């Protein structure tokens, strides 16, 4: 498999977007398309659904839903990508209509538009996402983001206290402000934390439909998932080297009886990619500087 087509890497590095397929339902979504397959991941913050479809599934579904239309899989995938991309970018697409039906275990997203001048229909059949996928795309990134933001706050508090000490030294030396409006009160950490806990935190806990998370923290999420992929790359490289060393040592010892090693399972889409694939994929991404994105944008 080409690295550029590895769904596990590509989907992980996609940001979450807040989309409204049909009023009043708003979901968090991310998607990845290649020339032969796609993965769609959706969540309402209580459940998570996903679908992974390959060429065979896409061909069969297209025949069932569009009996008058014959189109190659690449054209169908390009069409689906064009339908969803505007929504994932926060734009409207008036040429497409969506409707959604879901329960805790299944979600069906109906799409209606045109392709090659003929009516085009598509249904995304999503099932409940496994816990590992929920952890990889939400839990682990959110924990890393929280720890990173906490560390940044501590650094900013330390910097403010140093600045106050510097200003006080200037005052004791006889320096005065040329503009009175620039005067500030000394920073009080206890007061700052109290205001945060009583005013800022309650607002932040009103998660709603996830719209503020997908808009204000998109760049930070991308930076964290890139770090996540790099860590996986190092881990898989180390495991590969350990396995290679073990096999080499066994082959060099003539006194040892031959041992039948288990045949490696065929790689599936849900398995993590190899270290080389992860490393090459990261080289195709624009590396983000974590601390640059740790400052949250103000709420609108």
From TrEMBL:
Q: Which GO terms describe its molecular function?
A: DNA end binding
The XLF-like coiled-coil region domain covers which part of the protein?
130-178
- Family annotation (InterPro entries): NHEJ_factor, XLF-like_CC, XLF-like_N, XRCC4-like_N_sf
The UniProt transmembrane annotation reads none
Q: What is this protein called?
A: Non-homologous end-joining factor 1
Please list where the region (Disordered) is annotated.
Answer: 234-272
Carries keyword DNA damage? yes
The answer, when asked if DNA repair is one of the entry's keywords, is: yes
Write out the similarity annotation: Belongs to the XRCC4-XLF family. XLF subfamily.
Give a Gene Ontology cellular component term annotated to this protein: DNA ligase IV complex
Q: Where in the cell is it found?
A: Nucleus
> Lineage, please?
Eukaryota, Metazoa, Chordata, Craniata, Vertebrata
Q: Output the GO biological process annotations, alphabetical, semicolon-separated.
A: double-strand break repair via nonhomologous end joining
Q: Which residues form the XLF-like N-terminal domain?
A: 15-126
Show the CDD domains listed in the entry: HD_XLF_N
> Polar residues compositional bias: what residue ranges?
243-253
Please provide the record's keywords in A-Z order. DNA damage, DNA repair, DNA-binding, Nucleus
For bias kind Basic and acidic residues, which ranges apply?
254-269
């Amino acid at each position: 498999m080409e690295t550029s087509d590895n769904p596990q890497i590509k989907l992980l590095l996609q940001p979450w977007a807040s989309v409204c397929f049909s009023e009043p339902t708003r979901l968090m979504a991310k998607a990845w398309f290649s020339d032969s397959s796609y993965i769609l991941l959706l969540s309402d913050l209580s459940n998570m659904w996903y679908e992974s479809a390959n060429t065979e599934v896409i061909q069969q579904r297209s025949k069932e839903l569009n009996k008058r239309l014959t189109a190659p899989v690449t054209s169908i995938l390009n069409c689906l990508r064009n339908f969803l991309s505007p929504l994932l970018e926060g734009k409207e697409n008036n040429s497409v209509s969506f409707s959604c039906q879901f329960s805790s275990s299944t979600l069906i997203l109906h799409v209606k538009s045109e392709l090659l001048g003929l009516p085009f229909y598509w249904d995304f059949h999503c099932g409940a996402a496994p816990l590992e996928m929920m952890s990889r795309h939400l839990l682990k990134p959110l924990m890393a983001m929280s720890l990173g933001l906490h560390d940044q706050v501590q650094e900013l508090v330390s910097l403010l206290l140093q600045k106050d000490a510097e200003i006080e030294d200037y005052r004791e030396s006889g320096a005065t402000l040329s503009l009175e409006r620039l005067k500030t009160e000394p920073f009080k950490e206890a007061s700052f934390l109290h205001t945060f806990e009583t005013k800022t935190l309650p607002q932040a806990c009103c998660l709603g439909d996830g719209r503020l998370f997908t808009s204000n923290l998109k760049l930070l999420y991308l930076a964290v998932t890139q770090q996540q992929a790099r860590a996986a790359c190092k881990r898989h490289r180390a495991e590969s080297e350990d396995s290679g060393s073990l096999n080499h040592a066994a082959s060099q010892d003539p006194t040892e009886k031959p041992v039948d090693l288990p045949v490696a399972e065929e790689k599936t889409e849900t398995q993590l990619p190899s270290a080389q694939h992860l490393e090459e994929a990261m080289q195709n991404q624009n590396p983000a500087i974590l601390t640059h994105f740790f400052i949250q944008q103000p709420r609108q």
